[in-house]
Amino acid sequence: MILTIQEFFQQYWKWFLEAYLIIFVVIIPLRFILKNKRTVFIGLVYAIILGILFLARYLELKVVYNIYYYLMLVYPVGAFVFFSSDIKKGYEAMHNKNKKITLLSSSIKTKNEVADACMYLSKKRIGALITIEKHNSLDQFASKAIKIDSEVSKELIINIFTPYTPLHDGAVIIRGNRIRCAGAYYNLTDNQDDIDKTTGSRHRAALGISEVTDSLTICVSEETGDISLATEGLMIEANDKNKLLEYLDLFLQ
After folding, report:
1. Domain extents in the chain
2. For every residue of the chain, which 3-state class applies, written as one string?
């Protein structure tokens, strides 16, 4: 017997519901559900739609039932589109975490050179973005940037971020005691819940790369001169050199 479209969905709607729950509750990283208010909102709306659908069926409200029946079928597609950036970010994070590198610890000299450069840039209110690799490789970003492959030095970092020079935009990537590249660009964070709306693109880029890799990114604001550290999706202020060195020691231990 050939089923109509409506009869097919009436018999197999549970399959669609199960598939939806598996995709959005199991496959998508749980942290998106816990940290992202949009996820909670989407789930709540879906639960309301499902509740109204069962109520309309129980009370035999045919018009309401038909409206919410088709709305329930369309809703997962809309939710998938709405969460496309989160899904992409989740897969990107899994991809980066599968590309492991041997941690090359930075020397005390390198840490001091980075800290001194950040203090100078902060004092002069020159914007900067410095990312230090840990276990996750940043090859995909370094390959599109300007290769440098030089020892880390205060003077070189300052020269790179001096305004109106060819490399002052983008980020510097450091692996161990060497600057791999300059002018690297990252995807900005999509998390609007935990950051101020006035946060600039450098800070959003720093948070964005920290959400998909285990790197540490130092961000110097050109508006205020404040120094911030981004790691694991969190932003920490470190305007004091000793505090900055302390975080570098903890990160690179």
Report:
1. 5-82, 108-251
2. CCCCHHHHHHHHHHHHHHHHHHHHHHHCCHHHHHHCHHHHHHHHHHHHHHHHHHHHHHHCCHHHHHHHHHHHHHHHHHHHHHCHHHHHHHHHHHHHHHCECCCCCCCHHHHHHHHHHHHHHHHHCCCEEEEECCCECCHHHHCCCEEEEEECCHHHHHHHHCCCCCCCCCEEEEECCEEEEEEECCCCCCCCCCCCCCCCHHHHHHHHHHHHCCCEEEEECCCCCCEEEEECCEEEECCCHHHHHHHHHHHCC
